[in-house]
Design a protein that fits this description.
Order of helices and strands: HHEHHEEEEHEHH
Structural class: alpha+beta
Oligomer: single chain
Distance between the termini: 42 Å
Bound molecules: zinc ion
Radius of gyration: 20 Å
CATH superfamily of the largest domain: Winged helix-like DNA-binding domain superfamily/Winged helix DNA-binding domain
Length: about 190
C-alpha cells in the first residue's frame, strides 16, 4: 500500500482507484509486471483516447505530476507493444504514435488513418484474412522469404471529413504520401 500523504502538489492528478484496478488487471492478464509508470501511462492513453508519441507521453506525465524519464517511457512502450496492450500507428514524416488497443491483448489489428483530419480508427477485420496462406506461398516462391506476419494500415476519410465536404474522388488505393504528410502536419 502507498503511504498516505497530505502534502501532494496541487498539480498532481490522481488516478482513480477504479482505473488503477482496471489497468492492474490488464497488466497481470498480459503477464507484465505492474509498475507505477505503466499504470500512469496506460491511464493517460485511456483518458486521452488518442495516439501519442513517446515524447508527448513523457511531457504529459510530467505535467500531471507523474514524471517518468524518457528511457523508461520508451522501454515501457516496447514491452506493452509486445504484449499487444498498445498499438503503433505509422504517420509518414511523424514520430511513432502509440495508443491503447480497443481490444487489449488480442494479437491482430489494423488502423485507418484519415488523410484530412488525421483521426485514427482501429478495425478488427484483416484484408489478408482469407489470402494469407496464398500470400505466403507466392512470396516464398518469388523471393524465397518465409513470412511470419504483416504490418499494414488503411488511409481514407473519416465520417467528419466526408461531412465537411473534404471527400476527394475514390483513390487508386495508393495515396500520394505527400497528401498524408500534409494532413498530419495540419493537425
Ligand atoms: Zn492483418
Amino acid at each position: 500500500m502507498e503511504p498516505m500523504s497530505q502534502a501532494k502538489p496541487e498539480s498532481r492528478q490522481e488516478i482513480s482507484p477504479q482505473a488503477a484496478g482496471r489497468i492492474t488487471t490488464l497488466l497481470r492478464k498480459s503477464k507484465l509486471k505492474v509498475t507505477r509508470s505503466r499504470i500512469a501511462m496506460l491511464n493517460l492513453l485511456s483518458e486521452r483516447q488518442t495516439h501519442m508519441s513517446a515524447d508527448e507521453i513523457a511531457d504529459a506525465m510530467h505535467a500531471s505530476g507523474h514524471p517518468i524519464d524518457r528511457v523508461t517511457v520508451y522501454r515501457n512502450i516496447d514491452r506493452m507493444l509486445e504484449a499487444n496492450l498498445l498499438a503503433m500507428v505509422y504517420i509518414p514524416g511523424r514520430a511513432m504514435h502509440v495508443g491503447l488497443r480497443s481490444n487489449p491483448g488480442s494479437p491482430h489489428h489494423h488502423f485507418i488513418v484519415c488523410q484530412e483530419t488525421g483521426r485514427i480508427a482501429e478495425i478488427d477485420s484483416c484484408f489478408l484474412g482469407n489470402c494469407w496462406e496464398h500470400a505466403r506461398g507466392v512470396i516464398k516462391q518469388a523471393n524465397g522469404w518465409e513470412l511470419t506476419g504483416h504490418v499494414m494500415q488503411y488511409v481514407g476519410l473519416c465520417p467528419e471529413a466526408i461531412a465537411a465536404g473534404n471527400g476527394t474522388a475514390p483513390g487508386t488505393g495508393h495515396p500520394d504520401p505527400g497528401e498524408l504528410r500534409r494532413a498530419a502536419s495540419a493537425r
